[in-house]
Amino acid sequence: PNLISTSHHFPVQSKLSVFFTMIILFTYLFYCLNGFCDSLPRPVFDQRSLLHGGIILTDGRDAENLGGALNASPASVVRQHLPDLPTGDAPFNISVANTFGSKKFPQAIIIGVKKGGTRALLEFLRIHPDVRAVGAEPHFFDRFYEKGLEWYRNLMPRTLEGQITMEKTPSYFITKEAPRRVFSMSRHTKLIVVVRDPVTRAVSDYTQTLSKSPGLPSFRSLAFRNATTGLIDTSWSAVRIGIYAKHLENWLRFFPPSRFLFVSGERLVSDPAGEMGRVQDFLGLKRVVTDKHFYFNQTKGFPCLKKPEGSSRPRCLGKSKGRPHPQIPAEVLLRLRDFYRPFNLKFYQMTGHNFGWD
Asked: Transmembrane ranges (predicted)?
């Protein structure tokens, strides 16, 4: 009888074991699906092992075949060898985004100028694995300063050690209060200004406004305060922005020239890799973004990014970039060029660079 009783209990114990195992398994899966497992260690993200060990990566490559990766930051190595990570606002589109890195104030800001090529520069920079940037323009130092620095910092993407946090808002350059406010955040902030021939920039600015307001007066009527005397209306923002020397004086009251990099909007089109080399050097980054990343789009008239690995198509800027400009009378452009000439010369002296606009 004892033998029969004992053999009867074995199936019951087995069923109970299976039952409790299933409960534990489902509980674990439930917690993981709700994000409670993010803090568990993940060996594939052990940066020291990835950099210094001969481990096998998820795609079967070993650390000895990473080429120049050993000279890059841990963040860049992780980004380069995870499958198809986007370079937008949320590059780590996986659960570790919430537990890796921290939000910091930007170490570098693209402060201007509107219609100079700031969007192109930001998109080109985002190719670099050690650059993390806000996609939209925060406008903190000109529109939302009253919200406070903590609000601003929370807008920033998470960064790992060795990565740079960036943002771009072109209107900062012409905002009187912006230099003091940026300086109050950090006197060590690196400032990038993308400049372009002020006459071409003004026409581009007008073209953008015209696309949104088709009933806009002509360029001539807006540019001249008095058409008879040819007096330029400097109160019109499209004209005022191009007086670069005046705006730079305001910034130089707070930051030394060494804190600035002036990027040529024209060279960003004609030689994007060369200009990007200067930008990467200024930011203290390894030159990762090179000519292999670009091709010239004949239709748009400016460079586009070649198809990234794992992507279905090349990446160009939006439809608003490269739109045709309206015909402006030659005498209007000539008068505007005469107006800007002395300001351009002063700007060349202040920056130590002749941009060749005259």
From this structure: 12-31
**Whole-number Å distance between alpha carbons of 122 and 132:** 10
Residue 106 has pLDDT above 60, yes or no: yes
Q: Which residue(s) pair with 225 in the sheet?
A: none
Residue-wise DSSP of 43-87: GGG-HHHHHHS-PBPTTS-BGGG-GGGGGS-HHHHHHHHSTT---
Q: Are 132 and 191 in contact (CB under 8 A)?
A: no
- Kindly state the average pLDDT of the residues 275-300: 92
What's the pLDDT band for 57 if we cut at 50, 70, 90?
very low
Annotated binding site for 3'-phosphoadenylyl sulfate: 115-119, 196, 204, 321-325
Least confident range from 48-57, 145-154, 192-201, 205-214: namely: 48-57
Strand blocks (E) in the chain: 102-103, 108-112, 131-133, 158-159, 164-168, 190-195, 224-226, 231-232, 260-264, 294-297, 302-305
Best mean pLDDT range from 27-31, 39-43, 306-310, 341-345: 341-345
Amino acid identity for residue 163 in this structure: Q
CB 289 within 8 A of CB 128: yes
Half-sphere exposure of 198 toward its Cβ, with a 13 Å CA cutoff? 25
- Domain ranges in the chain? 102-198+241-322
| Distance in angstroms (rounded) separating the CA atoms of residues 81 and 61 | 9
Across 293-321, average pLDDT: 70
Residue 351 makes CB contacts below 8 A (sequence gap 6+) with 248, 257, 260, 262
Which of the following CATH numbers is that of domain 102-198+241-322: 1.10.10.10, 3.20.20.70, 3.40.50.920, 3.40.50.300?
Answer: 3.40.50.300
Instruction: Tell the residue number behind the tokens 């004892």, with chain if given.
Output: 2
CA separation for the pair 101, 38 (Å, rounded): 13
Q: What is the pLDDT of residues 63-74, one digit of tens each?
A: 333 333 334 454
Residue bearing tokens 């052990």: 46
Residues of the binding site: 115-119, 196, 204, 321-325
199-227 pLDDT, tens digit per residue, is 999 999 999 999 999 999 999 999 999 87
Q: Is 315 helix (H, G, I), strand (E, B) or coil?
A: strand
Residues with a catalytic annotation lie at: 115
